[in-house]
Design goal:
Elements (H helix, E strand, L loop, with lengths): L10 E2 L21 H13 L10 E5 L4 E7 L17 H12 L7 E4 L5 H9 L4 E4 L5 H13 L3 E4 L4 H11 L1 H9 L7 E3 L12 H6 L3 E2 L25
Parallel strand pairs: 1-3, 4-5, 5-6
Antiparallel strand pairs: 2-3, 2-4, 7-8
Length: 242
């Protein structure tokens, strides 16, 4: 599986996205790989999320390379909150949209802005996904189990790292109203839940420090990808509005 060529992303089905989710005029570019095109779309979709735990986007392509569904993380329990919780992760919402549209996910590729948590990884396995493409390496505590399972099940897991070119490309698509929040999505932080020092490290609340300082990320909320000023560490129960 690891040596197979990268499949193309050829376009998007007209009804792949819910009516309230924008793709900001995205179309696949010939000069980019299928994985880069897919991650571009996932990042654009993430800009539709206002979840307090961070913005996540996910797109699913079928075997032919067509995007058959896309979605973001969102709430179940408090849908009208200003900053709702990430009760449903983007991957589960995207798989659910495939089910609603009657589209097969067997052999599909998933493009997601952050590595799936274990629960989402299991959902993708159950859906028959064969490739998972993301922007970041898995967290240390999840990596071994997920990578071992992926190898055993012959599921390819690929990382397409961020570049300045991607940021500039997507900023142009989003326009001036979206530029700041899109740029922030490249500064991933983890929402910490317990074990956080009373004094935040204000200099670098980064992924590296989250692991080095053994901040424990809240599994059921997934990852914080950056929304507004979400490139800061967050104290449980405190929401930093932009």
């Amino acid at each position: 599986m690891a040596d197979e060529p990268v499949p193309p992303v050829l376009g998007i089905e007209p009804d792949a996205l819910p009516e309230d989710i924008q793709s900001f005029g995205w179309t696949p570019l010939e000069e980019l790989s299928g994985d880069s095109n897919g991650i571009d779309l996932a990042l654009l979709l993430a800009r539709n999320s206002s979840c307090k735990a961070g913005s996540m986007g996910c797109a699913i392509a079928d075997k032919s390379g067509r995007i058959i569904a896309g979605h973001v993380n969102g709430p179940v329990w408090e849908p009208n909150a200003k900053r709702p919780a990430s009760d449903l992760h983007a991957e589960v919402n995207a798989v659910g949209r495939c089910a609603r549209l009657g589209r097969a996910t067997e052999g599909s590729s998933v493009y997601v802005t952050m590595p799936p948590c274990k629960r989402c990884f299991m959902a993708l396995i159950a859906a028959g996904v064969r490739r998972i493409v993301t922007r970041k390496e898995f967290l240390t505590q999840d990596s071994k189990d997920i990578q071992t399972a992926a190898r055993r099940l012959d599921i390819a897991v690929k990382v397409v790292s961020d570049t300045a070119e991607r940021r500039e490309r997507l900023d142009k698509l989003c326009g001036p109203m979206q530029k700041r929040t899109l740029a922030a999505s490249f500064s991933m932080t983890y929402r910490t839940w317990q074990g956080l020092s009373p004094e935040l490290d204000k200099h670098a609340p980064t992924e590296e420090n989250a692991i080095k300082k053994k901040w424990i990320h809240r599994r059921e909320l997934g990852f914080s990808v950056g929304s507004g000023v979400r490139n800061k560490a967050i104290v449980p129960g405190v929401v930093d509005d932009p």
